Amino acid sequence: MLTDREVLATFEMLKNEHLDVRTVTLGISLLDCVSDDLERFKGNIQNKIQRLARDLVAACDEVGARFGIPVVNKRVAVSPIAVAGCSFKASQMVEVARTLDHAAREIGIDFIGGFTALVEKGFTEGDRALIDAIPESLATTERVCASVNVASTHAGINMDAVSLMGLTMKQAAGLSSNADGIACAKLCVFANIPQDIPFMAGAYLGVGEPDAVINVGVSGPGVVKKAIDRARAVNARMDLGQLSEVIKHTAFKVTRVGELIGRQVAQNLAVPFGVVDVSLAPTPNVGDSVGEIFQSLGLKSIGVPGSTAVLALINDAVKKGGAFASSYVGGLSGAFIPVSEDLNIAEAARGGILTLAKLEALTSVCSVGLDMVALPGDVSADTLAAIIADEMAIGVINKKTTATRLIPVPGKKAGERAFFGGLLGEATIMPVPNDDASGEFISLGGRIPAPIQSLIN
User: Fold this and answer.
1) In sequence order, what E strands does 377-425 have?
2) 272 — pLDDT class (breaks 50, 70, 90)
3) Average pLDDT for residues 320-337, to the nearest whole number?
4) pLDDT at position 7
5) Longest Cα separation, the chain
6) Which of 127, 237, 401, 418 could be cross-linked to 374 through a Cys-Cys bond (beta carbons 3.0 to 4.6 Å apart)?
7) Is 301 in contact with 99 (CB distance < 8 Å)?
């Protein structure tokens, strides 16, 4: 039971500190929709999504209003289309993407994930067709998100897939050049992708998941910052261990709120509840920034020396608080550092305090990786692939999820700004040192072997 003080503290989080449930995501399996007839497959997809998700938005709104806790985004994640639609060619995969987009629009959600391929060990024909379809699919739809898993700790890094994703990003950016390459903002490349991610653009429903399931993504960077500020105002001598406890207790409260909302929505829709993803997910709004937490913990800005240690502290405390609050924590969970989506981080990048190299170092201890990073439009596909490979190596060796959402902005150079709108925000384009210095390495292809587990240290 919550004490009166805890109830008041949670009310303060809602009123002044940007506490919300960032997303309720309904996972829907499409494996029973499979057909080798494209029109039948598309019809099966449309019917199943409509049947299971038609009341999702209303259920989220009703539960949010009842508890006074806003659910910001309502989303759907489906089975990997490269699996469910493995018999189709690239042009047909584009039609499937448009069917997903139409279904999402019909039920009123903001994004639908699952235009996904899992190729850490190799390609099927369906995988190749889906990846070939990604540029046109993302450029010609509004709500479809794609993800490709190219590496895992158990399989190593599929460098042929990494190279292909560099080319895919360039093509997707080119096809959406009128919107600063925004198609790439809907494309994640992963190592060790979880099966139950509620956050876009990486969300999909893994093959080991139920036929339908509710997963919840909570947020709360503003809540964490305010908690640290209050604690330090009361006791200016608090050390980092004590401040870690403050973050942990705050993450506990946020997670409890998320699970409460998720379970109520799941009950209303008569589907199982899955997991709470306890990631600190920022927005471009003032006071809702992960970057500001670094300042509350004594750093001038994210990106200065000490930033990696601070992010490790935050990530660990959030995970510990979430794990104590719920037995069903999953997804990514920890702290996101999306450059364009976080006003404070975007400003650090604009001022040159946060560089691409430092950002990569930070990803060794965060939840996702190089997220919403705007790059010059003329960066080569090989350099994009090399950046992806570096990020995948961090995930593979450290047995953690990492990902990239890189956006080569057509027609723009380092120092200029890219504008994506809404939660995606805007970002200063970061310079890429030594472009065209990695082509020979990328051209070697093959698979970087998995690490020997017993000798990792």
Assistant:
1) 402-409, 417-419
2) very high
3) 88
4) 47
5) 68
6) 418
7) no
- Which tokens in the block code for residue 337? 């550092």
The two tokens of residue 428 are 């200063």
Q: How many domains does the chain have?
A: 1
Determine if residue 245 is left, alpha or beta; phi over 0 gives left, psi from -120 to 50 gives alpha, anything else beta. alpha
Secondary-structure percent of the chain, ordered helix, strand, coil, rounded to 5 = 50, 20, 35
For residue 429, CA distances in Å to 183, 222, 341, 348, 352 come to 16, 26, 14, 12, 11
Per-chain mean pLDDT for the chain: 91
Q: What are 376's strand-pairing partners?
A: 409
Return the axis-axis angle of helices 90-107 and 125-139, rounded to nearest 10°. 50
| Of the candidates 314, 148, 305, the residue with the CA atom closest to the CA atom of residue 240 | 314
For the four alpha carbons of 361, 330, 269 and 12, in that order, the dihedral sign comes to negative
Output the CA torsion 76→79→81→86 (10° steps). -160
Confirm whether 65 is domain-assigned: yes
How far apart are alpha carbons 397 and 395 in whole angstroms? 6
Q: Which domain holds residue 98?
A: 25-191
- Interacting residues of 211 by C-beta distance below 8 A, sequence separation 6+: 28, 29, 32
If we measure between CA atoms, which residue out of 105, 100, 9 comes closest to residue 54?
A: 105
Report the CATH number at residue 97: 3.20.70.20
Residue ranges in 235-355 assigned as alpha helix (H):
240-269, 291-296, 307-325, 343-350
Structure tokens at 334: 């920890």
Any domain includes 105: yes
Q: Which two structure tokens, joined as six digits, stand for 110? A: 């903001």
- Structural domain contains residue 142: yes
Range with the poorest average pLDDT among 61-75, 79-93, 291-305, 439-453: 61-75
Q: Above 90 in pLDDT, residue 270?
A: yes
pLDDT in tens, 403-456: 999 999 999 999 999 999 888 888 899 999 888 899 999 999 999 999 987 666
Say whether 268 sits in a helix, a strand or coil: helix
CB atoms within 10 A of CB 8: 11
> Is there a domain that residue 442 lies in?
no
pLDDT digits (tens, 9 = 90+) for 98-125: 999 999 999 999 999 999 999 999 999 9
